[in-house]
Amino acid sequence: MKCQECHEREATLHFTQVNNGEKTVLHLCEKCAQEKGEAFIVNTGGFSINNLLAGLFNLQNNFQPAKQAQAPLYKEDSLRCDECSMTYEQFVKIGRFGCANCYETFKGQLNPIIRRLHSGNWAHNGKIPRRIGGSLHVRKNIENLKQTIQELISREEFEKAAEIRDQIRSLEKQLERSNEGGY
Amino acid sequence: MSLERFLNQAVSSWMSAEGPNSDIVLSSRIRLARNFKDYKFPTVFTSEEGQKVIDAVYQSVSGHPFSSIGTLELLVMDDLQPLQKRVLVEKHLISPYLEKNAVLGACILSENEEVSIMVNEEDHIRIQCLFPGLQISEALKVANEIDDHIEKQVDYAYDEQIGYLTSCPTNVGTGMRASVMMHLPGLVLTHQLNRIIPAINQLGLVVRGIYGEGSEALGNIFQISNQITLGKSEEDIVEDLQGVVAQLISEERSAREALAKTSNIQLEDKVFRSYGVLSNCRVIESKEAASCLSDVRLGIDMGFIKNISKNILNELMILTQPGFLQQYAGGPLRPDERDIRRASLIRERLNMEH
Ligand SMILES: [Zn+2]
Ligand SMILES: [Zn+2]
C-alpha cells in the first residue's frame, strides 16, 4: 500500500483516528509520519500519542454500562478549559493541550494517560524553576534532610541527626515566614 | 562559490569538531521544552500571543552572559526561503514541524550553532544544545544555564506534581529529551544490533535510524534517546543514557576487533571499494553514498585509510542531503540532477584532503 501523504513510498505505519465515533485509518510511510510530528514513537511498531489517547478514550467508553455507551460521544456539557476553551474530546483528537490550564481542567481523566505514557510514573522528580519555584526548593530540601535523618538514626549517629533536625526546623520557620508575608 | 567557502559557512561545530569518543559517538543533544504560563500553547494561540512569545524569548536571551555561546541571532521562519529552512532541518537545528507547520515559528541560533532555541514549535520554547562527541552532561549544563536565564524573565507553566507542562503529555515532567547519535557499523556488520535493541528499549530508551526509512538506518547512524520524561530527574535520565551509550561503545569496539581478526582483508577490501566509488562516481543516490561514507569512516577509524579527516562522515551525510545540494547549486534540482551534484560534491570534498 502506498503512503497517503506522498503517494510515493510504501506505507509502513497505520494510525487509527476516531472522529465523532467514526474510525478512520491513516496509512503513512515513516518519513511522512515523522514529519507529522516528533510524537510518533517509531521503533515500537509505530503508535502515536493520538492513537494511544483515542484507544484509552474508547476503552473508557467500553467500560461504561450499555445504556450510557449508546449516548453520543460529544455532549454539550462536556469538559471544557476556561482559558483556551479546548474540550476533552478535542484534546483526545489532536493529542495536544491548548494551554497550561488544560492540565488542571482534565486532571481527572489525565492521570491514567500520563502513567501509561511514562511507565507508571506520576510525579515530577526533576528540576524546579529557580524563580517561580520559590518555596518548593525549601520543601524539597526539607524532604531530603528528613531522609538523611532516617539514615543517620539507623546508623545510630544521633549527634549528627540532631544537627540535621535543627537545620530542618530553621528551614520550616523560613517556610512559615514566606507563607505569612508572601514573597 | 568555491566548495571550501561553502563548507566554511555550512558546517556547524557539532559536525566538524571532535569530541570525546567521537570515533563512535557523532553528537550529543539535549532539548528542553518550556511554555509560558499565561499564553495559550502554539497549537491554538492567537498571532498576537505568538508574536509576544517571540519578542519575550528573544529579549530574555539577547543580552545573555554566557561567553561560550557567542551572539544569538533571531531567524523568523516566515522570513526564510523554503530552501534555507530545509538546510536548517538537515543540520538538525530546527525540526521539520517548525519548518513546515508552525505558526509564527522562529529559531534563535548561536554563532557556532551549538545552541538553537526553537520558538513556537509545539511548545513555546525548545532549548536545544548540540555538541560533538559524547558530551550529554555538558550539553545539559549549557541548556540549564540558558533555561535559568530565560526563567528570570518568563513565568513558566510548571506544576508542583507533574513538573514542566508541555503541549503534548509525552513531554511533561522534565520536558527533556536527551539523545546521542552513534555510528555503529561493527554491530551492524556482525548482526548484533537487532539483538541489543530490545534490551535497550526495556530501559526506557528508544533506538532509531536517523537517515532512511523503516527499519533501515542509512550510514549505520543511530539515535538513542530517552522515551519517558516524568518521574526521573534530568541527571538520572542522562546517567541512564550514558550507561547504555558506554555499553554500546564497548560492544562496537569489540565488534570491530572481532572483524579485524576474522576478516581483515575482506573488510579492507570493502572499505577501499567504497572509497573508490566515492572518489570516482559521477552519479550517486543518497542511499549508496551513505553506505560508502560509513565504510570509509570505519576504514579511517580502523587505520586502513590514513590521510582523510574523520569528520568526513558527519559532514558529507549532511552536505549531500537535498536541501544542501540545492543551496550549493544555487537553485532547485530534480532528483536525477541531485544525484549528479552529490557525486561531484563528494569527489571535490575528497580532493580537498590531498
Ligand atoms: Zn509518505
Ligand atoms: Zn486550556
Automatic annotation (TrEMBL), chain B:
<keyword id="KW-0418">Kinase</keyword>
<keyword id="KW-0021">Allosteric enzyme</keyword>
<feature type="binding site">
    <location>
        <begin position="177"/>
        <end position="181"/>
    </location>
    <ligand>
        <name>ATP</name>
    </ligand>
</feature>
<dbReference type="GO" id="GO:1990424">
    <property type="term" value="F:protein arginine kinase activity"/>
</dbReference>
<dbReference type="InterPro" id="IPR022414">
    <property type="entry name" value="ATP-guanido_PTrfase_cat"/>
</dbReference>
<keyword id="KW-0067">ATP-binding</keyword>
<feature type="binding site">
    <location>
        <begin position="208"/>
        <end position="213"/>
    </location>
    <ligand>
        <name>ATP</name>
    </ligand>
</feature>
<feature type="domain" description="Phosphagen kinase C-terminal">
    <location>
        <begin position="24"/>
        <end position="255"/>
    </location>
</feature>
<feature type="short sequence motif" description="RDXXRA motif of the pArg binding pocket involved in allosteric regulation">
    <location>
        <begin position="338"/>
        <end position="343"/>
    </location>
</feature>
<dbReference type="InterPro" id="IPR014746">
    <property type="entry name" value="Gln_synth/guanido_kin_cat_dom"/>
</dbReference>
<dbReference type="GO" id="GO:0005524">
    <property type="term" value="F:ATP binding"/>
</dbReference>
<feature type="binding site">
    <location>
        <position position="126"/>
    </location>
    <ligand>
        <name>ATP</name>
    </ligand>
</feature>
<feature type="binding site">
    <location>
        <begin position="27"/>
        <end position="31"/>
    </location>
    <ligand>
        <name>ATP</name>
    </ligand>
</feature>
<dbReference type="GO" id="GO:0005615">
    <property type="term" value="C:extracellular space"/>
</dbReference>
<keyword id="KW-0547">Nucleotide-binding</keyword>
<dbReference type="InterPro" id="IPR022415">
    <property type="entry name" value="ATP-guanido_PTrfase_AS"/>
</dbReference>
<comment type="similarity">
    <text>Belongs to the ATP:guanido phosphotransferase family.</text>
</comment>
<comment type="function">
    <text>Catalyzes the specific phosphorylation of arginine residues in a large number of proteins. Is part of the bacterial stress response system. Protein arginine phosphorylation has a physiologically important role and is involved in the regulation of many critical cellular processes, such as protein homeostasis, motility, competence, and stringent and stress responses, by regulating gene expression and protein activity.</text>
</comment>
<dbReference type="InterPro" id="IPR000749">
    <property type="entry name" value="ATP-guanido_PTrfase"/>
</dbReference>
<dbReference type="Pfam" id="PF00217">
    <property type="entry name" value="ATP-gua_Ptrans"/>
</dbReference>
<feature type="binding site">
    <location>
        <position position="92"/>
    </location>
    <ligand>
        <name>ATP</name>
    </ligand>
</feature>
<dbReference type="InterPro" id="IPR023660">
    <property type="entry name" value="Arg_Kinase"/>
</dbReference>
<dbReference type="GO" id="GO:0046314">
    <property type="term" value="P:phosphocreatine biosynthetic process"/>
</dbReference>
<keyword id="KW-0808">Transferase</keyword>
<protein>
    <recommendedName>
        <fullName>Protein-arginine kinase</fullName>
        <ecNumber>2.7.14.1</ecNumber>
    </recommendedName>
</protein>
<dbReference type="GO" id="GO:0004111">
    <property type="term" value="F:creatine kinase activity"/>
</dbReference>
